[in-house]
Structures are given as structure tokens and as C-alpha cells.
Amino acid sequence: MSSNITEIVNVTRDIAWEPWAVQYFFLIGLSYGAFALTLPGIVFGSRKWAKASRSALLGALICGFSAPVALLSDLHSPGRFINFYLYPQPGSWMSWGSFFLVAYTGLLALYAWAALAPDLRTAAAEGGPLALPRRLLGAGTRPGLVRALGLLALVAAALVALYTGMETMLVRARAVWNTPLLPFLFLATAFAGAIGLTLLLERFACGNDRATEVLLNRWLAGTLAVVGALGVAWWVRGLGGAQPEATVLAQTAGSALWHANVVWMLIALAAPFAVAAVKPGGTGWLSGALALHAAWALRWVVLIGGQDLPKTGAGMYHFVIAAGPEGWAGMIGTAGLWLLILIVLTTLLPWSGALGSGTAAVAGGSRS
Amino acid sequence: MDRRDFFKAVGRIAAGPPAALAAGTARAATGSAHHWAMVVDIRQCIGCQACTIACIMENRPPENEFRTIVSTYEVAEGGRVDSYMLPRLCNHCDDPPCVPVCPVGATFKAADGEVLIDADRCVGCGYCVQACPYDARFLNAETGTADKCTFCAHRLEAGLLPACVETCVGNARVFGDLADPHSEVSRMLAEHQGEVRVLKPEQNTHPNVFYIGLDPRFQGRVDGAPTLWRPTPERA
Description:
Number of domains of chain A: 1
CATH topology of chain A: Formate dehydrogenase/DMSO reductase fold
Oligomer: heterodimer
CATH architecture of chain A: Up-down Bundle
CATH topology of chain B: Alpha-Beta Plaits
């Protein structure tokens, strides 16, 4: 920092994308990542992945349904969301994203229904207060429909992953976002977080299968290694003078906050990697929680930290999360909604795989 | 031409040539003969912030938000300390990065060159705020929509100068029509060819706010010490 210029008067700008945006990027990443984990077991019939895929489907649904709420909440005029669909803009990634998001969540719901309908029918036969909705939603096994909807949802999920990466990467005015590595970092950490979520759901809501836990932990370690490689690539680019990484390094070199961010990210990535790689069995609850934290931390550092670098002013903004709906209360609210959807889905249907006539039937092929 | 447009046109004619010249901030980029621009002669700016206040009085942004401001710096060099003033506002770029990102088409380039916001359509997503390299935009906490300098389009419609230009005591802000080779802005740009700079030229936004006397150290993000300003109490 030059010592001979002192800023006397300037304006501070509040961040435009609040913690709600972090929650959206986090939840939608978890959803499309978890959805991808459903494919081996549910669409491609891998026996090894059958339980993991079923747990992942629960995670994809919960996050897929709660993410749009967080996105709406980040709009400052949420009542006008309909304008996204009344005035589509082909040149705007966010405009495309509003359509991709609807396509993805809709196809995800249909895919989940097709995969779970046989289990709902079986559960309905057992009677009880939920027999009626289970009977209404239940249906026979339709492997072809499940595969078709799964592949369609895969296209939509890929488009969601693409737009969330591109809409941030293309913002040239934000040096932290403008790196070509950002979409890959979002993608890789979304998968890491999704594996972490699946590990947690597998442990606490879906049966706690040891072989599945080991499988997921091995994939988690591999995915985190990819994230680490992307991080190294970012540093190499920055030290080599590539833009915008070099600018970010120069602007943040003297910032204690950014030094803390770097340490935070290193620990956030190394901790779940170490747990998953060293002891993949019996540690899923820990590696899962740590992986979720890593995915969230990266989005916080990128999205909120990126906005803490003034575009014209000297120094740094120092975002302090508010207590109200735009801050902590909002994030707790998102967590509450997430929990509510979890309760509804796990009440409607047992996810332990004990029934086995739904996803297991689709996954009943010999491929693995 | 519908009845409303007819009466508007009659009103402009009745108001005389300045109003007629200033008209044309319609969304469609057709039929305009103007290319509004501002030349800021930094050598004339004394940092009085009269422009900042005039803008606030005219446009009434919420507290702690500004459509224009004079950034003020203290520069210590060679044993002496000087002040440096840099009026900032929306640059009304010819290639505005805020326009293509808007997901609902609420931000647009008007026929006369101003970058404007349709506040009835804006959803307050803040994407344009992110895309602006000049920190010229903000989300208006009262309206829930994006907000910024409009070159006082409503005053131009009435044949008046932007409030900040009108009030500038040192004539540091000069406003006019680049399409008119005899306008003062055209004359100043021709006269000071070679010394005219824009902010962040590497962004290729082609601003319509030009600076005379702009020190290159202040052309982009200022590398200095932020000592005397802090986040607002709400933020902290």
C-alpha cells in the first residue's frame, strides 16, 4: 500500500448480495451435487451406490426446495420475481438461470417421485394417518421413466451448475470473482459438500451403512484433492502475474482479514480431507460436517469477501453480519426451512432403504 | 404518436429549443440527435461537495447513499501535503457492463446516451451493482431497486442542466452534447486532447464522463490509506 495517499472522504457501499446469496449458492450446489450422486445407484443401477444414491436423493430434494427461497430472499423486491419470466433477457446469465432453476427443481421433483413411487405405494399399504397421501403419490415401478427423468434432470442440473459459475465469473468489476477457475471451484466444492451432506443423512436418517460410508469418504477425499489442486492453480496463476488473480493477491496482501480467510480455507479443506482419507470408516458424521463447512466457507469468502474489496476506494470494507432477517436470522430461517423439509420427507417415506421396492428395484440391475 | 407523446412534444416546443434539445430519454434508441456527456475539470474542483448536496436535494437518495460524491484525498509528496479531489458519478458508459447482466431488462441505455433504470421493472437483484466497475450503483433501501445517477434525466427533459452541474461553483463539471461539435464539452475535449482521461480505461466501458487533470494514481482503485471513514452504524 502506498503510504502517501490518505483517503479523507469517500462513500462506502453496502454489499448487494447478502448472506442469502451465500445460502443460495451453497444449497443449490449441494442439491445438484447430491443429485449427481443419485445417478449411479438410481439411474445406472450400481448396487454399490444404491444406498448412497438414495440418501443423496433426500439431500438433493431438501436443498433443491430450500435454495429458491434463499434466492428470492436476496432480491430486494422479491414480489417482482415474476418479472424474470415476463421480461427474459437472452444476454443475462441470471435471466437464463431463472429458467434453469425452475427446470431443475421441477425435473428433480418428478425424478424423485418416479424413483420413490413404488416405496410410497408399499408404505401406503401399511395404513396409518399418512396412508392417503402415500396412496395418492404411490405408483408402480417404472425404470424407464426414472432413467429418462434422471437424464433430463442431469441436463438441467448441469445448466444450473454452469449458470451459477458463469454469472459470478463474468463480473469483471469483482476481481475475486472474475477468475476462470471460479466455476470449477464452485462445482468441485458443491460435490464435496454434497458428499458431506449424503454422509450425514446416511448416518442420521438413512440407515448408517458402513460400506456406503467408506465409499462416500473415499470420493470425498478425491473431490477435496481436486479442490486443493484448483486452489494451487489459482495461486500459481496469481504468482505468475495472471489476471485477475495477481490483482487479488496485490489488493489483499496487507489485509489481516484476508490472511485469516486463507488460513480458514486451508483448514476447511484439509480437515475433511484428512478425516476422510485417514479413517473412512466410522467418521462419516465428522468428515460430512467438515465437508459441508468447506463448501459453505468457500462461498462465503468468495461472495462476501469479494464484495469487501472496494472497486474505487482505498482499503477494505468490513462486512459485519447483521442480526436481522438479512443476516443471522435469515440464515437460521433457511436452516429451519431445511429442517422442516427434512421432517416432511422423512415422515412421508422411510429412507433407510428397508422397503427397497423403489430405488432398489430400479437399481436392481447387475451393473456396479 | 399517441396522445401523451403529442402533448409531450407540444410541451417541449412551447418550452423552447433547450427543452426540445434535451428531450429524448425514451427507452428506444431511435430518433436521438444527442450524446450527453460530462467533462470534469479536476483542476477547478475545490472539494466543496456542493454537487453532492445538490444531488441529494434533487434526487433524495436514502441516508448514507450517494449518486455522486467528491472523493477527497490527502497526498503527501516531496515534503508537502496537498489535497486531491475526484468527483465520481455514473459514467454512463457506451458499453455499460450493468446493462447486459440485468435479468429483466430494467437497466437500459437511453437514446441520448444516459444509462437509466426502469424502477417499475427492477427486481433489486443487485447484479448491475456488482457489474459496475465504478461503484456508482447501489440498492436503494427505500425502494428496493437499483439506483444511480441519471444525469438528472428529468431535468434534461425540462431543458435544465443536471443539479450537480448547475451548482458547481468552480465550473469543474461541464455538461453537454458530444453530438454537437460546437458544444462546450466537445470543445473542451478537442482542446485538451491528450490530457483527457477516463476512469478504469482497461475495463473498455467507454465512459461518457471525461476528466481533465486526472492523476493516473486515481484512475482505478486508489492505493491508499482509508483512515477517516468507517462503515455506517447499521453495518457495524
